[in-house]
Specification:
This protein is an alpha+beta fold and 277 residues long. It has five helices and 15 strands. The chain starts with a strand and ends in a 16-residue tail after the last strand.
Length: 277
């Protein structure tokens, strides 16, 4: 079934390489009723500037169920003639954003989420950690998979997949992140978990800081300063969780953190009544 959908974009993960589609960005968002939608494939960085949209922007596009992906929220766009509508601002402690992002179920127990994913009831969710224990990283391969890289470069050379108007003709693949970032946290049951975060903003922050300070160690500490020190102390932190297609439906934990939702913490006002100190 094909339908024109209005989606508030809330997730743009760090770009990856696909053997079939080249460089892609995991993109997802919520409808006006708060339900989740995954949009794939989305060659975001190959769009010309005027077709690129920021997070928390409403977009309107023709979508159809992605029959090659069994996850219930997975849809694919029919063409690239979509409309970029208004951007939802962060005024009043992100009130307008909260109206849609926090409209439906907010999960706090990972075991419930994993059970629902394994029953194919969902593959995207908003999650509220009970406690954040740490933000860590590990070094990984610094170069893209040679097979996927060759396929992507061949596609760029032939310009066979995305020749339509609105695509960059002289395109360069994004550098691969040499580190994997992870949150260590507890859910409402007190169970400790460690989960990878694939937020594009975290990756971009690393590269920005590396270029500024010329030290990977200092760049990593700056990423932690924002995602752990600042987010834990000053933000009301939620995770956007998504399963990977490869592990959906059977893995012990198929979820990744594909984005964060971090409005400022609400300051509780105190009221003094006559006769009370």
């Amino acid at each position: 079934m094909t339908k024109k959908e209005k989606i508030l974009i809330t997730v743009k993960a760090y770009p990856t390489l696909s053997g079939k589609y080249g460089e892609l960005v995991c993109t997802a968002g919520v409808r006006e009723d708060g339900s989740w939608v995954r949009i794939y494939p989305m060659p975001f960085r190959r769009f010309d500037e005027y077709k690129r949209f920021a997070k928390y922007t409403w977009v309107e596009m023709l979508l159809t169920k992605n029959t090659s992906d069994p996850r219930p929220e997975s849809f694919r766009p029919l063409g690239w003639d979509f409309n970029i509508l208004e951007t939802v601002d962060y005024k009043h402690n992100w009130a307008e954003r909260k109206k849609f992002v926090l409209k439906n179920n907010i999960y706090d127990d990972m075991s419930i989420l994993i059970e629902k994913a394994n029953d194919n009831e969902l593959s995207l969710a908003t999650f509220k950690p009970a406690k954040i224990n740490d933000f860590v990283w590990e070094e990984i391969d610094r170069e893209w998979n040679p097979g996927k890289l060759e396929s992507t470069l061949m596609d760029l050379k032939q310009k066979s997949l995305f020749e339509a108007e609105g695509f960059i003709k002289d395109f360069r693949i994004i550098p691969k992140l040499p580190y994997r970032f992870k949150y260590k946290f507890e859910d409402i049951t007190g169970k400790c978990r460690e989960m990878m975060i694939e937020d594009w903003e975290a990756g971009q922050l690393f590269w920005t800081c590396k270029n500024k300070y010329e030290s990977e160690k200092e760049a990593l500490e700056k990423v932690k300063q924002k995602y752990f020190d600042e987010f834990v102390s000053k933000k009301d932190l939620y995770f956007f969780l998504g399963t990977t297609k490869q592990f959906h439906g059977w893995a012990k934990n198929p979820f990744l953190i594909v984005g964060t939702f971090h409005p400022p913490k609400e300051i509780q006002k105190s009221f003094n009544f006559p006769g009370f100190p």
